[in-house]
Amino acid sequence: MKEISKLMTYRDSIKVIDATLRDGGLVNDFFFDDSFVRALYLANIKAGVDYMEFGYKGDKEMFDPEKFGKWKFCDEADIRNIVGDNDTDLKIAVMADVGRCSYKQDIIPRDESVIDLIRVATYLNQMPTAVDMIEDAKNKGYEVSCNIMAISAAQEADVKTALEILGQTPVDVIYIVDSFGALYPEQMQRIAALYVEYAEKYGKKIGIHAHNNQQLAFANTIEAAGDGVDWLDATYAAMGRGAGNCAMELLLGFLKNPKYNVFPVIKFIEQHINKLREEGMVWGYDLQYLMTGLLNQHPRTAIAFTKDGRSDYAEFYKEIVAMD
Asked: Which part of the chain is CATH 3.20.20.70?
């Protein structure tokens, strides 16, 4: 029987991470104005969210700052402009993508930064660099997590090898990431059991970052929580790349810990997220994302389909089936 099925109580070890700016930034190239970011920060504090992910530590040699908003880079001064010294219970996180950041230069020592958590994102074939990034961030004084991306397309033996490698690093949290929104709760149960086995062996925590291609991001998140996964990612109104993510309002509504309050989330969506939709920003479940999820493919083709304003779904399905 899953612990989370005891619906009259809660688990103290659960942490909720808001990824709206980072994953949502993939929708608008991170061009959020400061008033939006500051309001989101305050909403997270009021909602009792544990961590707020501001964006990426992108390499400015690789990504043109003229073509992306400031949260692609998360400069210390820009974060402090929003949070000051962050004298709150909410912790600050940023993501560092393997191969897309100059981590030795751009991630400064923790005692000089308002950032608490570095989230290293890696594919299985990049594991040696991921390990170096984890050690670098840990040596600088940060909490560190590692997102192993696209595991639905990976061999189980490779995932086990990666978990063994990560278990021997100083990483604090290892993430299950359903990058393609291809997993079902039954699969999530087996994957979570595997990750938790290594977590218990090496004294780590496990997290979940789900995508909503098949409208299962919330279902997979609470399935993982019931299977012993403690760190749960979500975004306001499920805002995120393509089909989006687990919706914060669903997750906080489900968790029974009195520290969490869904009302500030609902208010922020009404006042700020809905405005983005009215301005033409598009994300969320749609047929093209369902198709890439069913076929266990990266949603880049579905994102292009959406940007091109196409509606020939049957033709698109034939195109992507031919890609397999």
From this structure: 10-278
